[in-house]
Amino acid sequence: MTERNPIGKKIQSLVVNVALAALLITGIISIVSMSSVREKNKEVLITQMETSLYNTIKDKARFADSELGKYTEYANMFADYVSVLYRSPSKFVPNEVLPPRRENAGHFVMLRTIRDEQTKYESLKDECGLLGNVEQIWIPFMKTHSEVAYSLPQRRECS
């Protein structure tokens, strides 16, 4: 006896085949969409990262510019004062700057150092005495602006 497929079994087989086909098509579409979304997300993330880095760099540059601007102002202030000293030395009483001493370690004091061992202090005494007047503004400045304590340029022979 031959078995006949009833219509119900054919419909059931057709529904299962349609469901499997729909599932397969949906899976393929999902994989393609996820790949596309991944690429778009990658581009979006890269753009966000670039924007964030750019803003960080811009902020750091503004901060550095501000800090360097302060140092420029400080250097100009001292340069102006030294310029006044050199333009009218007769208006200032010599203020001797002493050589480094242990007891001055850790304190804001002006110290005299001579780089060239051939140069004798006596030949620089008048100029060092004149530059010693910078101490009047230097020490109070250092006490209130300790962030620049070690960043000021030094004089050629004595500082």
Indicate the topology.
Elements: H1 7-87, H2 121-131, H3 135-144
Describe it for me?
The chain has three helices and no strands. With 159 residues, it is mostly helical. The chain folds into two domains: 79 residues; 70 residues, no CATH class. It is rod-shaped. The C terminus is likely disordered.
Structural class: mainly alpha
- What would you report as the Rg, rounded to the nearest angstrom? 40 Å
Please give the count of helices: 3
User: Whole-number average pLDDT?
Assistant: 81
Low-confidence stretches: 152-159
Instruction: State the separation between the terminal residues, measured CA to CA.
Output: 120 Å
Helix content: 55-70%
Strand content: under 5%
Number of domains: 2
Taken in chain order, the helices and strands follow as HHH
| Number of distinct beta strands | 0
**What would you call the shape?**
rod-shaped
Largest sheet: none
